[in-house]
Amino acid sequence: MRPVTTLLVLTNLPDRSAADALAEELVAARLAACVNILAPCRSVYRWQGAIESAEEVPLLIKTSEERFPALAAAIRRRHPYELPEVIALPIVDGLPEYLAWVAGETSGAD
């Protein structure tokens, strides 16, 4: 049996209410074990040839590699941006009990 790879997924939402709604949906659907909703930040980026800036609410989403495709699809479906940031970083180490909890919470079994 292959070990579960835990991922940290990053995305940003335009406001707190959108961040709250997405976080609750992801956890309820077992696509994420935990979502941290951070304080608003200012993002500066180039979009369609112009330099833009916006206040955004970052999310730190803990999930399993197996659930990432469904999680990314859910973010894309609910996200108000034309092209949302969805970046997955592998967690290379951590408290074994915590990583096991993430795996259990995203297994889809109740």
Rg on CA atoms, Å:
15 Å
In which range does the helix fraction lie?
A: 25-40%
Strand content: 25-35%
What sort of overall outline do the alpha carbons produce when their principal axes are compared? Answer: elongated
Q: Based on helices, strands and strand pairing, what is the structural class?
A: alpha+beta
Total number of beta strands:
5
Query: SSE order, as H and E?
Result: EHEEEHEH
Could you give a short account of the major beta sheet? 5 strands, antiparallel
Overall mean pLDDT: 94
Describe, in plain words, how this protein is organized in 3D:
The protein is α+β, with helices and mostly antiparallel strands. It has three helices and five strands; from the N terminus they run βαβββαβα. Strands 1, 2, 3, 4 and 5 form a five-stranded antiparallel sheet that branches. It is elongated. About 25% of the residues are buried. The model has no long low-confidence stretch (mean pLDDT about 95).
Attribute tags:
110 residues; alpha+beta; 5-stranded antiparallel β-sheet
